[in-house]
Amino acid sequence: MGFGAVVLIVAGALLIGGACQRIGHAREGFEWQIGAVGALYGELLASGLLGLTLSLGLVVDGLSLIPVLIGGIAGGGLLVVAFRAFGSRISAAAREQQAPAAVTRRRARLAYSEQLIDQPILDTMRRRFGVSVSVCRTQISGDHGWVDVELVGSAEAVEMALALARQSGINLLEPEEHESGAGRLAA
Q1: Which of the four, 21, 54, 76, 181, has the lowest number of CB atoms within 10 Å?
Q2: b/e code 71-110 from CB counts within 10 Å (16+ = b)
Q3: Under a CB-based contact definition with an 8 Å cutoff, are residues 64 and 55 in contact?
């Protein structure tokens, strides 16, 4: 098998993958890649590189096109059918029916002491409650410090993240308190 045969195998796999994306109801935008990988494997199997050797029909550059085409369609089709059946937990129809969760943005200043400076509170908020944590400003000096953050997520998740900070011993200041200079700590 020469260079021309390799080009035909790769081009065939890409074409079969594209066809798999357009046939039926694709659940994801990347199904053509799954189909192309399956088609490539099926083509290689049928071309004799992986053990199966058939010589039927038209032969180009040492490559028998009919078995390669059948192997590509079978491999790509089977992999896409399997993905559509088992690959995603939520069907496209169910995704369309789900209402998007309301997004809450909340700013706070987390003031902490030396004992808490090494605690990964922000990362814990992100991992445990799924909130996005953006650090706006920070100041650390010796035995204490503060971090201005913006938390983005569902209202419940943001409140639970702030409750975690309070439970950890971090003092919370609301934005109007620390920007006005009054600076009353909220426990």
Answers
A1: 181
A2: bbbbbbbebbeebbeeeeeeeeeeeeeeeeeeeeebbbbb
A3: yes
How many separate domains does the chain show? Answer: 2
Query: Nearest 5°: phi and psi at 117?
Result: -65, -30
pLDDT tens per residue, range 1-31? 678 777 878 888 888 888 888 887 776 777 7
Phi and psi angles of residue 138, each rounded to the nearest 5 degrees, phi first? -150, 150
The burial of 66, by beta-carbon neighbours within 10 Å (0-12 exposed, 13-18 middle, 19 or more buried), is given as middle
Look up the pTM and report it: 0.42
- Among 15, 11, 71, which Cα is nearest to 45's? 71
- Residue 125 lies inside a defined structural domain of this protein: yes
In a domain, 185, yes or no: no
- pLDDT tens-digit readout, 43-78: 877 777 544 455 556 777 667 777 778 888 888 888
Total H helices, total E strands in the chain? 7, 6
